Amino acid sequence: MRKSFLSTIAMAGATALALAACSGSTEPGTTNDPGTGGNGDELITVGFAQTGSESGWRAANTQSMQTAFSEDNGFKLVFNAADNDPAAQIAAVRSFINQGVDAIVIAPIVSDGWDDVLQEAKDAGIPVILEDRTVSASDDLFATWVGLDFEREGVYAGEWAAEYFGDTPTRMVVLEGTTGSAPANDRAKGFNDAIAGSGIVTIDSQTGDFTRDGGKSVMEGYIAKYGIDGIDLLYAHNDDMGLGAIEAIEAAGGKPGEDIIIITIDAVRDGMQALVDGKINYIVECNPLLGELVAGIVKDVVAGNPVDKEYFVEDQKFTQDEAAAVIDSRLY
Amino acid sequence: MTKILKHRLFWPAAALVSLLAVNIIANQSFARITMRDGQLYGALIDILRQSAPLMLVALGMTLVIATRGIDLSVGAIMAVSGAVALTIIDSSPSPGSLGTVAVAVVVALLVSLVLGAWNGFLVSVLGIQPIIATLVLMLAGRGVALLITGGAITTVNSAPLKFIASGYLFILPFAFFISVAAIATVGLLERRTALGVLTEAVGINPEASRLAGVRARGIKWSAYVASGLLAGIAGVIYASNISAADANAAGFLIELYAILAVVLGGTSLMGGKFSIAGTVIGVLTVQTLGSTILFFGVPSAQSPVVFAAVVILVVLLQSDLVHRTAKRVWSQVRAEFTSSNQQDTEVAS
Fold first, then answer.
1. Is the pTM of this model over 0.90?
2. Closest chain B C-alpha to A154 CA, distance in angstroms
3. Is CATH 1.10.238.20 correct for A150-286?
4. Which of B100, B81, B98, B78 is nearest to B89 (CA)?
């Protein structure tokens, strides 16, 4: 109730502003944005179906999208967060179609079950842009996909580890992400490819479900099994599991970052802080700030310009010193 | 011997002991306990410490199940409790002070108490089916927790908070003492007063016990209040363990593991007779099974299958039907064996 009330107000406000923009733009030259499609200075209405607000990464992603799709940039954003409910997300997309938006951006919760609603969007002539995750539906049902290359993240992490340890025999334990999820599979594969030929041997690999608690309890198991001295390297598929593992290592009297070298992926604030504090040794970023890029692509798609079928966002990588230099300027 | 075999806790205990034995035989390091700075460490100590949240939740679940109910909202209450406590600590100017943490924990537990009372109200006063009544909070509670934390993971640096889950008292983890205190309190209240008998009466036949003058409504209500409060404590321990309020992951699916632990401990989901000791054994079995999977290095993709297989094995071990069948088969085998033995002797002579 509250949500719809707020969105009504927001919509009323947006309409008022759009009207103001229209009436104020009788003289030519007020549009300083050449990419706003064929309708000159009219705002592009974009429906964005976000997964929900399950993590800090997601919050930063939403923030980035809302900033990029601002009215100053020529957009009117209709935002929906589906709280990780796939049915609710499909319903939201359907309502975007009924509202007759100019473009739809979806961060799909699950990859299956999109064929019908995407076909409806296509029939209505509304282009669909996928963000972050992909769908299993046919390629011609959406315009393009913008997201991250999880395998590349794993490769970056593995390359650093391979360079750090070289031929030295190294016993590595892994905290995997949620079993079967794309980031878990791809980050494992990229890492393993990158460390091939080095002295690093995986002595154990278990899932910590991307959570701090999971990371901590699995790490406690590793420590009970091998001892702090029996582990040289920890590779965690995300920061949160790494942070949990740090708790476990400290509780067992070890020094994270020294007794056990730690590599993680994500670069959320708490992770970066641990990196600066010397408790993590290397973090590969999983950049949630996709808004700018997506907004540019949406403009191109609406204007009818040709776009690629997929856009990978380049991720950054941080050592402890690099993290210290950038931590204050980071947005998430 | 048969008396021990007949004891209701024999098979649950046997399952736990054999699980531990398998681990120790297969992996020497499983049983290793080291003393460092006057504190004990090792896989077995980890089990005692890590099982605290599940122990508290399962104790509450035992009481609710005894009244023929079920409480699905415990995981969500854990998330709310942790979110409330950590948000208070995070917004305080002195997150490291004992006073701040005490206030935060008390407020979190009061909120949990209210949530438990809400469940109890729906079930005992409005007469809504327990599974539906608690489903409301199971779904809404996590949303509330996310609202409190603003969708992010609230991280705090607070020594007194950390102590709750990671600290040591004498030589054992403090969290273990919380478990023991909860077991003792519930055990004394239920078994040293008439409360336990009345709870069982309500569970066995609500109508008959009402006619007999038992205040069924109050007893049911109090079971949900207790379950909410215990889940709240579990939520604080969970948050303390990682020094963070993770509203998405805190207590996720713990309601099902708690129900599993209660059933493994020999309490029937039909309500009535319940066993606190059985639940304790059930919780330790579930926790040990988790460690077992880790120690055997079962690949993540297969671990749910292994978990399920062992659970089925343990449940079969406790089944009366299986016992009777096994007895019959055994006596047949023995009869055939003795008769064939006799034939052998005849041939030999």
1. no
2. 19
3. no
4. B100
